[in-house]
Amino acid sequence: MKFTCEKALLQSAISTSSRAVSPKSSIPALEGILLEAGSELRLTGYNLETGIRTVVPADIQAKGSLVLSARLFGEIIRKLPDDTVIFTAENYMVNIKCGMSEFNILGTDPEEFPELPTVEYQNSFVITQERLKAMIGQTLFAVSDNESRPIHTGSLFEVDENGLTVVSVDGYRLALRHEPIDKKEGEASFSFVVPGAALSEVEKICSQVDEPASVTQGARHVMFKVGDTMLVARRLEGEFLAYRQAVPRNNPIHIEGDTRALLSSIDRVSLIISDKLKSPLRCIFEENLLKISTKTAIGDARDECPVSGDGKGLEIGFNNKYLMDALKAAPADRVRLELSTGVSPCVILPDDGGDNFLYMVLPVRLKAGE
């Protein structure tokens, strides 16, 4: 096996594929990257849950395949000078040359590396990388980390004639993003749940570009193809929350506000809240004004934020982090908060009446005198 490749390209491919490598595994090969030099140079990382395969432009002089320690191979390439890397392997003995540097390391048998699962095609759609990246990033924070409901440790992807809807829920909040898609094949509407860990990697692989990303739903797996990189993840099975019924939409109180101004006010008041000193935000919605306060063992803080609409003096408590996560993710300069009572959820929507996002945050019970 022999090839030459630009150091920067190889380093980027190692960094991408090693995201799916197990840091520690009972199968030593899973701590490595599978290199395959055939008609093209392919690098694969796989941890039995998620697999990432990427193709690198390289000049291949002799074909072959082997597995190299992801950590060691990555460190060597990262620290090499910026030049062309000459890679030669014979009987698992690998020679890496670049400029004045040279390394000889031992690889392992590629037969020990488990094969990536095949995705039996069911349905697929195409969406721009930029849009997919934004949709994942703006819903991933609400994915649950509670393993007692495994289905909610992922995001629901729903595709129909109106486009793609991505929903995450963790029992305290809900995040929803909706965008049109470029192309769809298969059933008129379909849905599947992708693990949060895999989506976190998809978000990193996608770039802020108008290039297409294709998503294929298989019987047990889902495949994301972005440029020269492919990610395969096991689908989560189970009954996802019926989110349409969970979101109250006939709320009598509508408050509109500037997203940044709301965030700044909450951020200031949150300065005296910490992991050790937890306390809810006490929010009082008055006419054209939102009063926010909190009290912890080290003191108290108050702030006011101008808003539009009459909150009729509604008093409601929130976890500061949950409210801030939703406002940070909302892709709009102005938002509409829909409220009903002090114990019903707050729904955050676009101010312009659009439907491309919806966030819901459950309130926290306030104790008298807090």
Automatic annotation (TrEMBL):
Residues 1-117 form the DNA polymerase III beta sliding clamp N-terminal domain. One of its GO terms (cellular component) is cytoplasm. Residues 127-240 form the DNA polymerase III beta sliding clamp central domain. It is found in: Cytoplasm. One of its GO terms (molecular function) is DNA binding. SUPFAM superfamilies: DNA clamp. One of its GO terms (biological process) is DNA strand elongation involved in DNA replication. Residues 244-365 form the DNA polymerase III beta sliding clamp C-terminal domain. Keywords: Cytoplasm, DNA replication, DNA-binding, DNA-directed DNA polymerase, Nucleotidyltransferase, Transferase. InterPro entries: DNA_clamp_sf (IPR046938), DNA_polIII_beta (IPR001001), DNA_polIII_beta_C (IPR022635), DNA_polIII_beta_cen (IPR022637), DNA_polIII_beta_N (IPR022634). It comes from the Bacteria. Belongs to the beta sliding clamp family. Confers DNA tethering and processivity to DNA polymerases and other proteins. Acts as a clamp, forming a ring around DNA (a reaction catalyzed by the clamp-loading complex) which diffuses in an ATP-independent manner freely and bidirectionally along dsDNA. Initially characterized for its ability to contact the catalytic subunit of DNA polymerase III (Pol III), a complex, multichain enzyme responsible for most of the replicative synthesis in bacteria; Pol III exhibits 3'-5' exonuclease proofreading activity. Forms a ring-shaped head-to-tail homodimer around DNA. This is Beta sliding clamp. It comes from Pseudoflavonifractor capillosus ATCC 29799. The lineage of its organism: Bacteria, Bacillati, Bacillota, Clostridia, Eubacteriales.
